[in-house]
């Protein structure tokens, strides 16, 4: 799957056949009729705002930096090395080595460590997958939401395309279980407490907590 950057779409003029002609409106308070304004049946397509890309990407890297399981610019070989002895389902996020992708999910599977690219398009992230499975995959506003969706639930298995040459039509049964934190980023007690609170309630904003603590919880609304 190749991620293409699309430029602004041209706004085509509305054909004359799509314009409603003038009609007569009765103005009862004046006692005569007057023409109404023309109305278009089809409005022009809405153009994508590039600033939305900036917000979505900045939000994703903000969450990843806090998470502790974003390993940055490590190679596929380095990711394989740290995942080799881990339990099946252990994963991390790293920078993609492919020029058309930003991020890659590296995970220990039953076949060993493997890599799955993460696609980005118009403010949404999703796993790179085979063409047949792609319509069934959800897209998310950030990578942390994507990962959390697949962790610890019956939906934690998905057929994806590995970030390496594979026979046509083959797919990988992917199961995510637990993140692998960087050795130099041991979670603080505050962060562990935040994760526990997020696991125990879906509405942390309703807890009777001081405003600074509420902001701290909202800064990372995930439980992994």
TrEMBL record:
GO terms for biological process: intracellular signal transduction; negative regulation of signal transduction; phosphatidylinositol phosphate biosynthetic process. The keyword Transcription does not apply. InterPro entries: CIS_SH2 (IPR035887), SH2 (IPR000980), SH2_dom_sf (IPR036860), SOCS_box (IPR001496), SOCS_box-like_dom_sf (IPR036036). Residues 175-223 form the SOCS box domain. It comes from the Eukaryota. GO terms for molecular function: 1-phosphatidylinositol-3-kinase regulator activity. Pfam families: SH2 (PF00017), SOCS_box (PF07525). Gene3D superfamilies: SH2 domain (3.30.505.10), SOCS box (1.10.750.20). Residues 69-180 form the SH2 domain. SUPFAM superfamilies: SH2 domain (SSF55550), SOCS box-like (SSF158235). Transmembrane segments: none annotated. The keyword Transcription regulation does not apply. Keywords: Growth regulation, SH2 domain, Signal transduction inhibitor, Ubl conjugation pathway. GO terms for cellular component: phosphatidylinositol 3-kinase complex. Pathway: Protein modification; protein ubiquitination. This is Cytokine-inducible SH2-containing protein. It comes from Anguilla anguilla. The lineage of its organism: Eukaryota, Metazoa, Chordata, Craniata, Vertebrata.
């Amino acid at each position: 799957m190749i991620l293409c950057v699309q430029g602004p779409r041209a706004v085509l003029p509305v054909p004359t056949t799509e314009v409603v002609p003038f009609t007569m409106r009765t103005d009862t308070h004046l006692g005569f009729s007057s023409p109404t304004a023309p109305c278009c049946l089809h409005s022009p397509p809405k153009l994508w705002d590039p600033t939305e890309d900036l917000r979505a990407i900045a939000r994703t890297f903000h969450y990843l930096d806090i998470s502790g399981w974003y390993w940055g610019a490590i190679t596929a070989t380095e990711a394989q090395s740290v995942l080799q002895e881990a339990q099946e389902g252990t994963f991390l996020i790293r920078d993609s080595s492919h020029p058309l992708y930003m991020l890659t999910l590296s995970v220990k599977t039953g076949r060993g460590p493997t890599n799955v690219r993460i696609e980005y398009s118009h403010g949404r992230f999703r796993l790179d997958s085979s063409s047949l499975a792609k319509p069934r995959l959800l897209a998310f506003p950030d990578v942390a939401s994507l990962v959390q969706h697949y962790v610890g639930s019956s939906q934690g298995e998905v057929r994806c395309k590995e970030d390496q040459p594979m026979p046509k039509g083959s797919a990988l049964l992917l199961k995510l279980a637990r993140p692998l934190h960087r050795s130099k980023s041991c979670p603080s007690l505050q962060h562990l407490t935040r994760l526990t609170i997020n696991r125990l309630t879906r509405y942390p904003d309703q807890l009777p907590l001081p405003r600074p603590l509420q902001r701290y919880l909202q800064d990372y609304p995930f439980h992994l």
